[in-house]
Amino acid sequence: MKILIVNTSEKTGGAAVAANRLMEALNHSGEKAMMMVRDKQSGRLTVIGLGHRRLQRLRFLWERLLIFVSLRFSRQHLFDIDIANTGNDITRLQAFKDADIIHLHWINQGMLSVSDIRKICRSGKPVVWTMHDLWPASSICHYARGCNNFQSACHHCRLLPGGGSKNDLSARVWRKKAEALEGQHIHFVTCSRWLMDQAKKSGLIKGQAVCSIPNTIDTKVYRPSDKTEARRRLSLPQDRKIILFVAQKVSDERKGMPYLAKAIGKLTELHPQYKSTAAIAVLGGKTGDLDGMFSLPVYPLGYLSDDDSITAAYNAADVFVIPSLEDNLPNTIMEALACGVPCVGFKVGGIPEMIDHGKNGFVAEYKNSDSLAEGIDFVLGSGDYGSLSAESVRKVARCYSQNAVAMKYIEVYNEAMALKHYKL
Questions:
Q1: Closest CA to 187 of 129, 131, 228
Q2: Angle, helices 369-380/257-270, rounded to nearest 10 degrees
Q3: What is the strand order of the sheet 278-285 is part of?
Q4: pTM for this structure?
Q5: Same domain for 413 and 367
Q6: Which of 35, 281, 283, 292 could lock 246 by a disulfide, CB 3.0 to 4.6 Å apart?
Q7: 312 lies in which domain range?
Q8: In the chain, how many domains are there?
């Protein structure tokens, strides 16, 4: 079976990481999988770049400009919205024509337009679409954040000035997406049961097949290693407990950094010994605004892109904290667990599906910094840390192995092909 995985980026972002890992898992399982991306960042033969970088940049800027105008020239929410007004017609490319299955992933920011998606759906090829957020089942947003309009039809969007209107940008994009998907059969896959439950309520993809399959990870790469060596490599202190926070953009409101800062303050207030025995490591970009935010020493690691450095960061840590306010099935939790690092996060999205409370970490009450602090202390002060660490590794082996995830996707591909042949 020839599978063409379509994603905006080859390596940047959680969806790109997940798509890459799935491609490797499928190829290891005997299938022939390739990726098609707007932004190719390696020389791998299994990844096809669209080229024309200047044109791709112009498409990206054109979409941002229209969104900027719709936001009345405000930068707030500028990157929370995607309207898919421009993109690439990949149906004309040989790799598309050769494929048995078209597998869409995160295709925003100028990769595919709504018109391109319509052409793909009408090409006669079976289409599978992995949802890394809610955008495929909503209008312009990636996370609903309590809004239920996507369950019927988007309008009065909370991201638009003044709360939008009956015929605002979200309503217009909704109609275009509904027209593109009308009469088409797409197999939607979510990475978490939480997102699956949301997707099934969507008025946009009502009647479409929706199932949940987690992302996968290569446990030959992400695995426990020597903590002392990992800290030496990253210049982290050997004599402190390391609390790790990871985000592509640590200032992203959705990632919950203020809740972590408040939790650390509560932790050191209740347990003053941590002031001399603990520290925070921050992996990601935009770390310049952290000075004075925490009551513990902070070690910015910057943005690490290679697997060896990333696994060193996880293995250097004693606990991984993810205070996200909304998230699907974070790769970061999976990576930490695979390295034997217990995790602490809020009870939101797919996080409780990954962290087994009291077994491989702690699930804190939503938006409750005191509960988050309790979770950090639970892990760092545990008298049986070895058991938490071992269960972390076992969780990944049970649920996220390459073979298990690849087999689930192959089953979906076969169903999609059978349905397409039946319709023909």
A1: 129
A2: 60
A3: 298-302, 278-285, 241-249, 319-322, 343-346, 361-364
A4: 0.88
A5: no
A6: 283
A7: 227-399
A8: 2
